[in-house]
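Attaching the record inline, Q. Sequence:
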Amino acid sequence: MRITVDKIGKKFIKEWIVRNASFELAAGGKYVFVGPNGSGKSTLLQLLTGIIPVSEGTIRYTGTDEKDIETDHWYKHLVIAAPYLELIEEFTLREQIEFHSKFKPFKKGMSASDFEDFIQLSHASGKTIRHFSSGMKQRVKLGLAFLSDVPVVFLDEPTTNLDVQGIKWYLDHVIDHTQDQLVLLGSNVEQEYGFCENIISVSAFK
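Structure, as predicted:
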């Protein structure tokens, strides 16, 4: 999967959050968008996922067959872990996992039980998501991102709400479980993105 960005911008009321952003994201590459708080990192990632529409410019997703993918179908090819995206609070952990896997199958046919072991929350399989701590929820989101069998992975501020043990878990797995995928990360924390070979400053798109 390749993503081509051509002079995109996003305007809220009278303010341009991002403007005239152009770059190409190569299949299998690791990219991080950096910049001060409020510089537009999360907005740019949401534009790239199609969560919010661009005000100007174009974004193209191109498959391995060199055919462009329609915007309405981007979601089939990506997964995102971000603080502003919610899990389904009424589900138990097992129900959340099984629901997600209906839309995004896990790599190597991993079972729900295997997934719970991977995120180290097998003891909470029957617990309702609303009763999870913020750190537990973040670990679920990251696990879904790491293990979903899709070509593009978005990670926005991935260690938000994680304790020291959770951060270590993230660092232990983020490289091994995204090796063949295009990874797009938004962060100001160098520890989170040390594995990324491409650094893009959002401040340039103003």
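The first helix runs from residue 41 to 49. The mean pLDDT is 96.

More tomorrow.
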